[in-house]
Amino acid sequence: MATRPGTDLAVRVRGLRKSYGAATVLDGVDLDIRRGEFFVLLGPSGTGKTTLLRTLAGLEAPDGGEVLVPARRTTVYQEPRLVQARRVLSNVTIGQPRGAATRAAGARALAEVGLADKVRAWPATLSGGEAQRAALARALVRDPELLLLDEPFAALDALTRLHMQDLVADLCARHRPAVLLVTHDVDEAVRLADRVAVLRRGRFSVDRRIVLDHPRDRNNPAVLDYRRDFLGELGVSSTR
Amino acid sequence: MTVSSGPSPAAPPFAEAAPTGPRPAPPGLERPVHLGSRPRNPLLSLAVRVSIPLLLVGLWWWGSIAGFVDPRILSSPPAVLTALRELIATGQLAEFLAASFGRAALGVTVGVGAGLLLGIMSGLTALGEELVDPSMQIVRAVPFLALVPLFISWFGVDETFKVVLIAVAAVAPMYAYTYVGVRGVDRKVLEAARGFGLRGARLALGVIIPSALPSILMALRICMTISLTGLIAAEQIGTTAGIGYLVTLAQQYFRTDYMVLCIVLYAVIGLLIDAAIRLLERVLMPWRAHVAAR
């Protein structure tokens, strides 16, 4: 494909507006995410992060503005949202055409997230981290051009969260989808992002590129600088 | 999807696209299809709700007037209205409704009370479940109409028999739904409430019953409906008043206008019960105003 303007974009949002009653959550948001870019939306709850993500997923109807996304897009939510009545593999391949190829792809995706031995398991028998990895496999098996992650690690314990962050960084480096990660965890944002933005009063108050190599050591002074800046932007003072 | 994906020579680069109207998306991008629910126009919603019942009544009316429906098979709406006027004029409608309502109210109160108590006992503790559940499953398995001859020989054909029959009819669904509702109460909330010192009646009234209310109100709805069935059986004998008696009369004298009138009365009573329970749901469960049980 020719390098037309815009063809390297995975997300193009112009003038997006959304309000709930009197509360305007998104007030003319513009956003471009390039293909393969890891974009993190940072901020406290109630600032419209999840609304923006859900609009890209087609779960919320915008009140105004233009939203463009690629055809293959998948979402991982804060909860695993697995169908309890279907086995793990069946959950991963849900909505895909039946057949041996789909099952093989599902099993491959489960192996990638480290759940090769849970293919036949019931969701209720999984731990929280395992269930969330199954949800990740369900997103990956669709080979997404855009991966929407809605606080996918928020409900996990601290250690599992770190493992999951590494796993997501690794998987995204391999499959190169455009990623929109919504989180309120500054460390997570600095660890994973190519670019970090903060929503405030319905618009981006910060939109900043993070130019550091992976993997990022959390004690690296440059990482700590970013961390302090973002915490300051969110109204939290940090002492190094 | 309103947008063609893939490179198309006709699609202008978006930077130069016209400022008005839905512009063609850049290749490879599309507008997401809305997957969520949209708000519905309440007037339209109401119109859709009543459209099919109204259509059926209209067909019935038209079929009767046009002569497609034999009045010996199905009376025409005007004939049914005449029967209704007769019943009102003689004062029997009010009398019958009052008689039936009194029996049903007493029977349902007793049955619902017992079912609620047993359901909570059974749902709450293992011992209660072991004590109560087997017997209640047996009661539930026996169709209450099969008890009519036995009850007549025990209680005669008077009011006691009628009330007991309705109570027995109501106890089984109330028990089953309450049990399910109590079992469904969040164990962690219950654990916390116990930790804060709630016991016995205060725990039941303050935490368990409110949390189980959706199931309990659903049960109440079913109990009301089942009490109408019970009335037909109970009012076949030993009375000269009640809507069940009216059904029996219509059958004996082969009056299709009264048969249809009975059905209309049952439908109206059913709608009234439904409205009453919806109101009760609003009053008793303000925390879930938008999710009325159906």
From TrEMBL, chain B:
Top-level taxon: Bacteria
Coiled coil regions, renumbered to chain: none
Entry's localization field: Cell membrane
Record key words, sorted: Cell membrane, Membrane, Transmembrane, Transmembrane helix, Transport
Membrane topology: Multi-pass membrane protein
PROSITE patterns linked: ABC_TM1 (PS50928)
Residue intervals passing through the bilayer: 43-62, 104-126, 138-157, 163-182, 203-222, 258-280
Keyword Transmembrane annotated: yes
Residues of the ABC transmembrane type-1 domain: 97-277
SUPFAM superfamilies (UniProt xref): MetI-like
GO biological process, one term: alkanesulfonate transmembrane transport
GO cellular component terms given for this protein: plasma membrane
PANTHER family given in the database record: ALIPHATIC SULFONATES TRANSPORT PERMEASE PROTEIN SSUC-RELATED, ALKANE SULFONATE ABC TRANSPORTER-RELATED, MEMBRANE SUBUNIT
Family to which the UniProt record says this protein belongs: Belongs to the binding-protein-dependent transport system permease family.
Protein name: ABC transporter permease
Lineage: Bacteria, Bacillati, Actinomycetota, Actinomycetes, Streptosporangiales
